[in-house]
# Entry
Amino acid sequence: MSEVPDPKRILIIRPSALGDICRSTPVLAALKARYPDAKIDWMVRDTYTQAIEHHPALNEVIPFKRVELGKQCRHFRFGPLIKWLKELRKNNYDMVLDCQGLARSGFFSRATGSKLRFGFKDSQELGWIFHNQRVEAPKAMHSVDRMLALAAAAGADVSNPDVSLYAGQAELSEVIIEYPEPYAVLAPTSAWNAKCWPIDRFTLLAKDLIKNNNIQRIIIVGGPGERLHCAPLLELAKGHPKITDRVGSTSIALLMAIIARAKLVVANDSAALHMAVGFKRPLVGLLGPTDPKKASPYQRESDILQHINEGDEFYFRDNRSAEMIQRITPAEVLEACNARLDN
# Structure
């Protein structure tokens, strides 16, 4: 790298998922610190652009319309994809970092025509064949450190990672007006059922937590398709003046603003947990079949509750390991919450 001129245009490829995008921002910050005059773009799935669009180190968001382009390709209409790839190539990137590590992201890296394409030596689906700078980063590493290994290979200093996220001013103003009082956020859902602490325990937690004098409100958050899962908790919110139901009624931008001002965030392994890290909020992370060495809230290991027994499998795609998160008791979660609120 010492013999290569400083890049003028850099592309980060990390299209999904939302939580992974939120914890990829240290790569952006490290690259900007190393190459302050470079314009750094980020290819991200179009539904997640709000997660990063306000980051001051970012030049431009490159939306990847995965659903739309995928549907067209399945009907053998490749014109829109080819056009999009041509536009991508016109940006003349000097350097590309594939932080996703899949065949598709590797292909996009190659399609840019960049002469420096950093990726994992062991990228999945043979994605490594598209990289010409193949970086050794063991999969046993924390996912953030693994991505930062790419930034380090590209010349950046990663010794003091900046995890910061940034909310939009309009959304922050909306939250200040609507919820001026101190509040806690409960995020009782996750993309995988095995990662979800039982909803009846979240309901019990809400009843007890609202008694803490350091908060005056609890806000429940989640996606539009998660209301049924949250039903007992939302039923409680209906008749409670200090418990607010925002499940399915926030954009990503508004969710970030809500978390940015929270006095406490309680969440399963989900995007909300990693947003709390990015906004440096007090948090209690409830982990079941999540390997804490790879995917715990970054550098906030002391803020997780998890009980691991010998022989446990960190497998969350079905319910074989669902019992792990049920080991966390309502009493210990309430104690952890009160300790943070009373500090």
Residues 169-341 form a domain with the Rossmann fold fold (CATH 3.40.50.2000). The mean pLDDT is 96. The longest strand covers residues 39-45.
